[in-house]
Amino acid sequence: MTIEATIVIGSGTMGRGIAQVAATAGLTTWVYDANSEQLSGAKAAVEKSLSKLVEKGKLPSETADAAKANFKLCASLDEPDWSKVGIVVEAIYENFDAKTALYKDVQSRLRPDAILASNTSSISITKLAAASDRPSKFIGMHFFNPVPLMSLVEVIRGIDTDDTTVETVESLAKQMGKNPLRCNDMPGFVSNRVLMPMINEAAFALMEGVAEAETIDEIMKQGCNFPMGPLTLADFIGVDVCLNILEVLHRDLGDPKFRPCPLLRKMVDAGHLGRKSARGFHKY
Length: 284
Ligand code: CAA
Hints:
By secondary structure, the protein is α/β, with parallel strands linked by helices. It has two domains: about 5-185, NAD(P)-binding Rossmann-like Domain (Rossmann fold), CATH 3.40.50.720; about 190-275, Orthogonal Bundle (N-(1-d-carboxylethyl)-l-norvaline Dehydrogenase, domain 2). It has helices at about 15-25, 35-55, 60-70, 95-105, 125-130, 165-175, 190-205, 215-225, 230-235, 240-255, 260-270; strands spanning about 5-10, 30, 70-75, 85-90, 115-120, 140-145, 150-155, 180-185. The protein has an eight-stranded mixed beta sheet with strand order 3-2-1-4-5-6-7-8, with helices on both faces. Acetoacetyl-coenzyme A (CAA) binds near residues 17, 149, 192, 227 and 228.
């Protein structure tokens, strides 16, 4: 199935990034958000990002102009032309009830052959799929922040996802300039199952006084060649998001090795959430 149009639901950091790469790939792209303030911020952010990519020689200016023309904000789900939409990518906050309530609304409009994808980083694809009307056409399409710069899309297959859906999503990811890699549906998939214990351990090292935050980050940058240290990365992702993913890993895999560091909890309680609150492991 060739996909010509998409609706991205959620216009936060991830949703706007996904919409940008979809529009750049030539898809008519509607972005919907119930929060009108967040939605209006998405257009300016995408235009700024496209201009930056042009400035750096990473994108031809004609492609950026075409992307701007393909990109449409919608304040209501009545606005898009649903007959053209081959895939909806949901990128709202990590809450099972909120996501499944949204699917009910989407499904009543979505073509029966269209795919429903979630950008969830921690909720079971199989469980979300089972709450939808199309488990065989439900899939995880997990992008990485900042979406326009990161090449990977983790493609997560739920227990009932069919081969055509996996293949269609892989070819769509390639059209978006991304490298899709498949994995099965297990808590944290691959990326967060491996990344979050490292961030958690860095928080334990800080809490136990092994080194200062700056030193922990520099050791991992200079010693392991990471582009940013684990605590800087936690600030970038959001300390609350990291804690939430660790809680899912700990609960659903039942292994004490995923026990969230108490310092993460303390920081979330204090509102030290990282870059978005101007204070996390570092100050911004
Ligand atoms: N669009 C366009 N440009 C952008 C951008 C965007 N959305 N976001 C950042 N940039 C630009 C910045 O403005 C900056 O430009 P200047 O150099 O002109 O100031 C540049 O990108 C970033 O500067 P760097 O020197 O850091 O650039 P870099 O190219 O060397 O690396 C990076 C950038 C790829 C983001 C790198 O820092 C990196 O790999 N960081 C780690 C990111 C990461 O691990 N992300 C995954 C998080 S986990 C996740 O997302 C999933 C989950 O489930 C939690």
